[in-house]
Amino acid sequence: MKSSLGKRLKEAREGKHLSQTTLGKAINAGQTTVASWEIDKNEPDLLAIRRLAKVLDVSPEWLAFAIKGNDYSHHKELLELNVRAVAGPGGLEDALEGDDDSVRARYYFPSAEFRSAFGVDADRVRVLEVIGDSMLGTLAPGEKVLVDYRDTVASPPGIFVVWDGMGLVLKRVEFIAQSDPPRVRISSDNPRYNPYERTIDEAYIQGRVIGSWQRR
Questions:
Q1: Rounded-to-integer distance, Cα 46 and Cα 214, Å
Q2: Strand 144-148, strand 103-110: pairing
Q3: Which tens digits make up the pLDDT trace of 51-107?
Q4: Chain CA centroid to CA 2, Å
Q5: Terminus of the chain with fewer CB atoms < 10 Å: N or C?
Q6: Are 90 and 115 contacting, i.e. CB atoms less than 8 angstroms apart?
Q7: Using CA atoms, how far apart are residues 125 and 165, in angstroms rounded to an integer?
């Protein structure tokens, strides 16, 4: 039976002869946070897992999913895309082949666990880093978001990746009822930015945000 993430974390920490306090300081977390991870009360997000793995000299894949070596059978590859490299009306779709210029990182998830957590297959998801503060309060700059690039219809409303003519942006998008021609309202969670409207043809919706490293 596969051990839990918490048990693997404790095993790796004790193997390096580190206290929970020392490990926490190394990754900017408190001792109580590390303790909660080790008893599986809470789970570190993927950014924290990468930091933990670096300090403990283990692979993130082993720490998160008990994958040893290059054993990625029954796992799906998830691509993190370079936002600037894929900018454009068809950016996410154009980057589906995963060429080196557009890919920042590659992650591996157990297929069944990913679908259970996010409701879609990993094949239709890409990872992007939040740039800018337009969604501050909900999504912070530097945070990683999971984008379902096959969900490009703003019904129901939600947070989407949109090409606005200048670059890819993360915004809330919703249809304007009874508009003719059909229009959408595009808004930010940061009150510093005013909402605006676009016709369906003008709003190049790239995909719906379904979660982040914190698994919202």
A1: 8
A2: unpaired
A3: 998 899 888 878 887 766 555 556 777 888 887 655 555 555 555 454 556 788 877
A4: 25
A5: N
A6: no
A7: 23
